[in-house]
Design a protein that fits this description.
four-stranded parallel sheet; 13 helices; Rossmann fold; 13 strands; seven-stranded mixed sheet; homodimer
Chain lengths: ~425, ~425
Amino acid sequence: MTAKNAFYAQSGGVTAVINATACGLIQEARRLHLLHPERIGKVYAGHDGIIGALTEDLIDTSLESDADIARLRYSPGGAFGSSRYRLGTLETHRAQFERLVEVFRAHDIGYFFINGGDGSMGAAWHLAQIFAALGHSLTVIGIPKTVDNDLALTDTCPGFGSVAKYVATSMREASFDVASMARTSTRVFILEAMGRHAGWIAAACGLAAEREGDPPHILLFPEVPFDHEAFLARVAECVEQHGYCAIAVAEGLCADDHCNLGDASLDRALSGSLSVGVGRFIAELIHTRLGYKYHLALADYLQRAARHLASATDVMQAHALGVAAVNRALAGENNIMLTLRRLSDRPYCWDIGSVPLDSVAGATRRMPAEFISPGGFHITEACRAYLQPLIEGEDPPPYRNGLPDYVHLQNRRVEKKLPGFSL
Amino acid sequence: MTAKNAFYAQSGGVTAVINATACGLIQEARRLHLLHPERIGKVYAGHDGIIGALTEDLIDTSLESDADIARLRYSPGGAFGSSRYRLGTLETHRAQFERLVEVFRAHDIGYFFINGGDGSMGAAWHLAQIFAALGHSLTVIGIPKTVDNDLALTDTCPGFGSVAKYVATSMREASFDVASMARTSTRVFILEAMGRHAGWIAAACGLAAEREGDPPHILLFPEVPFDHEAFLARVAECVEQHGYCAIAVAEGLCADDHCNLGDASLDRALSGSLSVGVGRFIAELIHTRLGYKYHLALADYLQRAARHLASATDVMQAHALGVAAVNRALAGENNIMLTLRRLSDRPYCWDIGSVPLDSVAGATRRMPAEFISPGGFHITEACRAYLQPLIEGEDPPPYRNGLPDYVHLQNRRVEKKLPGFSL
């Protein structure tokens, strides 16, 4: 019996540390291959994730040098390409699944590692069922990844700690700027943070505030129905008290019926800004009603790609999950998603656990009520205790010519053995 | 004769390194005060710059510890407050200037250091004339500062090198992200950079591209009239060729009559986005005409406050200018602005020169034609040779609890001797 190869797919939005997981996984697979060549062969990465499996577009990671694989640890983005492609169901897309079985058989793939969020875990579970039904044996291991931190059943998600460190640092820095200019210039600074369904990233901005009155003064979470009068009153109070007001808003605010402005003329005045994002909406609301000059920052992809400011804790966990995935698979575990488990806050101790794949899908973890301060505009001490360890430590990349020196892999392809396939 | 004290004002928009200049200036004044107590007394900083002089709101920097002054070197924002307040003319605002003379006499201020852009230099020159006319002797030294790099007569401006390093790093990181997702997600990424009148910051994004085809693929400068058809053709070509297109646009694009879209229906479709900034305008133009999914980042204050990613070269120059300002003043120079002079590109050698204060005001330095590539969408090798040394070197701040540990000075005030004064 020849050793089974592994297939690794990056899936969904990428992060500053998803390549650290790839790094750990490939390094560990190489180590175990050298020791036990009969147990595991090569690691093939899907070009653009699962699309690479469908189109037999496989990257042979064994052709990359050890040095370049090590450099993955500090390079952002998805080195093999990620995708938001969704597999259908066996009923509607039988040909697609038969194709996957065919590709995996053709390339002796017995291990399937999927590095993604809850949608990817659901898809992986579904895939495992179908492969079994089609008579192909496959070990399926999910590795969590999402900047949003909204994946259920894991204490945190690789990617989140680094975006948290980035937004808290950015908020602190911009607030130093605004504070020094407020008397004759900008009174209100707004940072729009990622987080469509949960306020974790906006909450992390709150770590920049260490003492009473420190910026940011207001955090707006999707978990708290937006009360614009209470909000405006709080903004005015901050400007009165501190000379300025620094605000972080999660992009998910107002994305649904929570956004009950209840004021038709205001609605009209703001309708243009609603279509260009919640940050602009909030900014225009303040400007229209309170008259303050504002500045707005949309960190957008900068926040989830900012490997230069990654959390060392986050990088370490992302890498460790890649290592663990290979070990779990070779130890015979199957149909699980690995998780991070918190053993204590101070000192921050953690280990790696697992949950059944089918328990993850569809469950969005939002901020619990005890993490949101009374009034809804800030985080509690319990939230700080949760968030603080996740941003600890720096792990800067090497620099060349004044810029981070990230790796471009060769990404040489595995020779195709099958006819083409259209998506 | 008692030693004259010094007044130091931060003026205009702050930067990641303006406090490094304050640090150098205060450290050097302390050193010279110890050696020659008869030549220079204390350094008083204006709270909110020149406003502090008018309102006799003076910060006694001698009450700060040496350690805290040293920490200014790595803290962003303006530690004493900056302002955009504009002095009038002697004809219209005589009382204001008489007040300044009164405050400076009351506190034995004989040295006036202004740390700002071209507007501040013009105001300082004006002030020097009026002080002379009013019979008060004052040594006036200007120290350049602006992230925009558009100050004439100096090779570069403290603040620019750090924002340049930040935007180039951010563009590289976001491009890694977009490149890995483009097949099924975002095709076009746009970073709106600062620069109302000149494209220096947008140009710096171009440093992220080292090889043919590297992102960013398109840079849009205020210096180049915007040709939307040529631009759209280039975007489509990039997406075709690379799968995605990364763009940096200076906020000054389209701020004037250059923005001749020449298409009434397009104008209407985009009119909403015009009011919310050029980045959104460009994004909507692409979406409307080419249909690509886009992401837009507005780095806003994040770029000019990002001390965590400052250029070591920039920090060194900012600090050296503060040191030099005190030395020039005590050596009897007057009515000058210090400049940075480039002696060679490779190796990058520089020294500090000076120009008469009245030669600086009103002259905006835009990108020269030889720095912009044929077609107008990128930078030339000559531009790279100019920009590259300015982003060299890292000088990270210390971290505490996972975040940069910036200094909050005590900012204790000098006792007032005069009646109040309303601005």
